[in-house]
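Lecture notes, continued. The same structure-token format from the folding unit now serves as the input rather than the output. Read the line below as a description of shape only.
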């Protein structure tokens, strides 16, 4: 009775967005990959596990709205639009932050994030939302706390994080490398420690690309250009002056103007990340942050797909 009376309440914009996302994501297909490591029923009595589909929805909600585990728990208890999206009535229990953390840990331990990412991208490709007309590559720094010195001389600093400099400023943390198609959909990713140069992951991220590769001038390498040319792949890396060259040639300037438009598309995921999550990682350790980035990339792609296929 109460659920029926409140059916029209809740934020209308959020409700409409979540209805679109609910229709866009193949929940049961993705859940099928997870079920072998997530048994619904403890066999020890007490409250059973939350259904896998509900936990997947919670995981993506976190990344669409940039919420920590405790904040997600509170939002589920507080927001009608979230409860409706999760299929929870007003009398149903919510999902506590420990359950959310345990679900993510199970995905991490089982190494399922990359499998889910590939599965989601196959679905999006079948929908015509990922196109194979070239690959753009870029990387962004995600900062981690520098830690503090304990009384015994040890440090709370994350040992997997490292330092790097960009534009004269020192950063401590990690670096997320991505490849996107020409629509800004993430087609591959690598999480690294911050000190690894952007260009070190380019060949891995563009392996198999048969048409064109786009990147900023940090990725310029004559040997890479030669390898791409030998495969018949257009090298859309932004040209820069070499030693002894006072200015770019007219041909280089024309090349840069043409490539810059496509290359800029790869920055779209990073811009959305900073709006929703900010410039920092949430976890300690390279592998855990890699899991988080993979889950975030899946959530981003489905959110981005709404702009490519508005209904």
């Amino acid at each position: 009775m109460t659920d029926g009376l409140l059916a029209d309440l809740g934020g209308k914009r959020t409700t409409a967005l979540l209805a679109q996302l609910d229709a866009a994501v193949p929940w049961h297909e993705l859940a099928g990959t997870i079920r072998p490591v997530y048994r619904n029923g403890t066999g020890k009595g007490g409250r059973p596990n939350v259904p896998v589909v509900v936990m997947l929805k919670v995981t993506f909600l976190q990344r669409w709205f940039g919420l920590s585990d405790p904040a997600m728990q509170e939002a589920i208890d507080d927001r009608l639009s979230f409860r409706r999206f999760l299929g929870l009535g007003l009398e149903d229990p919510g999902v506590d932050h420990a359950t959310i953390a345990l679900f993510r840990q199970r995905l991490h331990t089982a190494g399922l994030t990359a499998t889910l990412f590939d599965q989601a991208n196959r679905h999006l490709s079948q929908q015509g939302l990922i196109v194979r007309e070239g690959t753009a590559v870029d990387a962004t720094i995600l900062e981690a706390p520098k830690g503090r010195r304990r009384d015994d001389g040890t440090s709370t600093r994350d040992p997997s994080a490292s330092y790097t400099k960009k534009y004269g400023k020192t950063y401590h943390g990690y670096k997320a490398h991505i490849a996107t198609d020409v629509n800004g959909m993430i087609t591959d990713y690598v999480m690294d420690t911050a000190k690894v140069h952007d260009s070190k992951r380019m060949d891995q991220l563009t392996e198999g690309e048969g048409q064109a590769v786009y990147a900023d001038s940090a990725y310029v390498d004559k040997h890479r250009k030669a390898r791409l040319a030998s495969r018949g792949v257009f090298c859309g890396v932004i040209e820069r002056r070499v030693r002894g060259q006072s200015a770019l040639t007219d041909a280089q300037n024309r090349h840069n103007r043409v490539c810059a438009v496509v290359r800029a598309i790869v920055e779209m995921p990073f811009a959305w990340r900073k709006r929703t999550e900010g410039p920092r990682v949430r976890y300690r350790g390279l592998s855990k942050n890699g899991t988080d980035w993979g889950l975030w990339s899946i959530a981003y792609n489905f959110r981005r797909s709404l702009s490519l296929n508005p209904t």
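Point for the exam: Residues 1-9 have pLDDT under 50 and may be disordered.
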